């Protein structure tokens, strides 16, 4: 990869981060119980590990994770970490409402990693992330890996051989915000 190509990718990522302001997740999600449904579950209380398989659906406040398999670990402090993997027919799915806004973030990838302590999500391989304002698709990015930090409101999208975008590059569509709606939401 040439230095100028790498520089362009970093510049695009920086522009993308600036264009997608405020992706703060629901603050109350952290303190909600994690609920799940699956075809089977193995619960290891000693290791604080739950292995869920087959049509797994997890909810934690406004967070929804769907996958073929999810491993959930919990620390002694009560933080939860989940690794979700999709199947050949369907990628793992993540959804979360944004705090104080009528916006939802949805993502899909072959693998999802949710870190409850850091309040981050990573979408790995064939990653796609969408922002809906109400029911309208506003923004969409695709790449090999997408990570976002709900605390700092920072997204990062990286291209690569398993990118959901053609030729392994990062792709995106960003819809301008309606200034009147932004001002009404901040009052």
Q: What Rg is obtained from the alpha carbons, in whole angstroms? A: 17 Å
Strand coverage percent: over 45%
SS content category: mainly beta
Oligomeric description of these chains: single chain
Widest sheet: strand ordering:
4-5-8-9-7-6
**First-last Cα distance:** 47 Å
Domain unit count? 1
Largest sheet: 6 strands, antiparallel, barrel
The third-level CATH topology is: lipopolysaccharide transport protein A fold
Q: Please tell me the overall pLDDT.
A: 83
Fourth-tier CATH superfamily name: Lipopolysaccharide (LPS) transport protein A like domain
Helix content: 10-25%
Question: What is the number of strand segments?
Answer: 12
The number of helical elements comes to 2
Unreliable spans are: 1-24
The CATH architecture designation is Sandwich
| CATH class placement | Mainly Beta
Sum up the structure in keywords.
12 strands, disordered N terminus, 2 helices, 6-stranded antiparallel beta barrel, globular, mainly beta, 187 residues
């Amino acid at each position: 990869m040439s230095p100028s190509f790498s520089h362009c990718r970093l510049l695009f990522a920086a522009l993308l981060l600036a264009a997608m302001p405020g992706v703060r997740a629901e603050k109350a999600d952290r303190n909600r119980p994690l609920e799940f449904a699956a075809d089977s579950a193995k619960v290891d209380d000693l290791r604080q590990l739950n292995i869920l398989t087959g049509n797994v659906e997890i909810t934690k406040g406004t967070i929804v994770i769907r996958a073929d398999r999810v491993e959930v670990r919990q620390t002694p402090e009560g933080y939860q970490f989940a690794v979700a993997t999709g199947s050949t027919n369907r990628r793992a799915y993540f959804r979360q409402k944004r705090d104080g806004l009528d916006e939802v973030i949805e993502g899909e990838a072959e693998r999802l990693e949710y870190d409850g302590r850091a309040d981050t999500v990573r979408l790995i391989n064939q990653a796609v992330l969408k922002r809906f304002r109400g029911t309208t698709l506003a923004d969409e990015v695709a790449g090999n890996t997408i990570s976002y930090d709900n605390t700092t409101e920072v997204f990062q999208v990286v291209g690569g051989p398993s990118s959901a975008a053609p030729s392994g590059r990062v792709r995106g569509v960003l819809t301008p915000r309606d200034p009147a709606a932004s001002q009404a939401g901040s009052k």
